């Protein structure tokens, strides 16, 4: 599957509040404007002082960057909305996994409410070597990591509303020596929007309401398209390393809109044997009793 598209659905959930909704609409434009203006301000510092007007423009630009940065941080860290019931799903993966970012440890789990990431979780498949962020050794092929190519099931009954799998799987950025490249790249991706942050993406609207996003998927691995019905054991795609990703992993989040761009995050809960369970905490080794993909998936 190669096309990206959306399919309108009627699922709605309770309102989060006017202030939270306004904040969700403003977060990305303010973030993009702050980054763009900051780059402009840095460039202007290299210009010679040819006139008082240029000096004044530099000062005003610097002040604007400062004010926008404060506004950006306020929007990204506050106004997450009223507490709402969690979206409940079965784990979309099976086997041994580690949570590297989790709302069970902190909220917002990724340090920001931008793009509906308030209660998002990142999962890595356990491998022969423990997960680490080494001094060197970044920029490795995605296929070197145990998470790459792992199958993902829907984990819920619902309807696919968005599917996109054309972005390439890039090399890892999982070392301190690769951190500058990761930082600059993620700034650019954040300015360009959620499509460039999440990479290959599938969004499903569960029958009970809300939306679930599965991000950083493997290029060309989507097995569903907008409008398809899925069940919890439906194979939907495979884990990859597309978008703003330091290494192959699954980024999973629940939100109140079909697109992350202006969405507010929703709490997410896994249903497991014996009832519901909180998501695993950060750096917690977790053996997941997920559903095997249905035959023929």
Protein described:
By secondary structure, the chain is an alpha+beta fold. It folds into 2 domains: 18-77; 87-288, Distorted Sandwich (Glucose Permease (Domain IIA)), CATH 2.70.70. The protein has helices at residues 18-44, 52-77, 179-192, 194-198, and strands at residues 5-6, 87-89, 95-101, 121-125, 151-153, 158-164, 201-206, 211-215, 229-230, 235-238, 250-255, 265-266, 268-272, 275-277, 284-288. Helix 1 (18-44) packs antiparallel against helix 2 (52-77) and helix 1 packs across helix 3.
Produce the secondary structure layout.
Elements: E1 5-6, H1 18-44, H2 52-77, E2 87-89, E3 95-101, E4 121-125, E5 151-153, E6 158-164, H3 179-192, H4 194-198, E7 201-206, E8 211-215, E9 229-230, E10 235-238, E11 250-255, E12 265-266, E13 268-272, E14 275-277, E15 284-288
Parallel strand pairs: 2-13
Antiparallel strand pairs: 1-6, 3-4, 3-15, 4-11, 5-10, 6-7, 6-9, 7-8, 8-11, 11-12, 13-14
Summarize the structure.
The protein is α+β, with helices and mostly antiparallel strands. It has helices at 18-44, 52-77, 179-192, 194-198; strands spanning 5-6, 87-89, 95-101, 121-125, 151-153, 158-164, 201-206, 211-215, 229-230, 235-238, 250-255, 265-266, 268-272, 275-277, 284-288.
What key phrases describe this protein's structure?
single chain, 297 residues, Glucose Permease (Domain IIA), ten-stranded antiparallel β-sheet, three-stranded mixed β-sheet, 22% strand, disordered N terminus
């Amino acid at each position: 599957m190669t096309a990206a598209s959306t399919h309108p659905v009627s699922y709605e959930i309770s309102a989060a509040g006017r202030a939270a909704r306004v904040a969700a609409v403003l977060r990305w434009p303010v973030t993009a404007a702050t980054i763009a203006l900051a780059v402009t301000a840095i460039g202007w510092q290299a210009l010679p002082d040819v006139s008082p007007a240029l000096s004044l423009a530099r000062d005003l630009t610097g002040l604007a960057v400062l004010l926008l940065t404060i506004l950006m941080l306020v929007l990204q860290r506050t106004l997450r909305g009223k507490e709402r019931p969690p979206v409940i799903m079965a784990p979309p993966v099976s086997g041994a996994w580690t949570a590297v970012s989790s709302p069970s440890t902190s909220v917002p789990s990724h340090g920001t409410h931008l793009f509906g990431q308030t209660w998002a979780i990142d999962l890595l498949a356990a491998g022969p070597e423990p997960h680490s962020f080494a001094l060197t050794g970044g920029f490795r092929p995605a296929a070197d990591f145990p998470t790459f190519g792992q199958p993902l099931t829907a984990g819920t009954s619902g309807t696919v509303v968005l599917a996109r799998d054309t972005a390439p799987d890039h090399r890892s950025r999982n070392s301190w020596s690769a951190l500058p490249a990761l930082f600059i790249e993620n700034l650019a991706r954040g300015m360009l929007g959620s499509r460039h942050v999440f990479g290959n993406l599938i969004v499903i609207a569960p029958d009970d309401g809300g939306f679930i996003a599965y991000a950083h998927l493997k290029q060309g691995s989507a097995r569903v398209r907008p409008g398809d019905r899925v069940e919890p054991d439906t194979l939907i795609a495979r884990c990859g390393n597309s978008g703003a990703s330091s290494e192959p992993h699954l980024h999973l989040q629940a939100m109140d809109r079909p697109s992350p761009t202006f969405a507010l995050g929703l709490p997410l809960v896994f249903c497991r044997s014996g009832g519901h369970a909180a998501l695993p905490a950060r750096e917690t080794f977790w053996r997941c009793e997920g559903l095997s993909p249905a035959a023929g998936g």
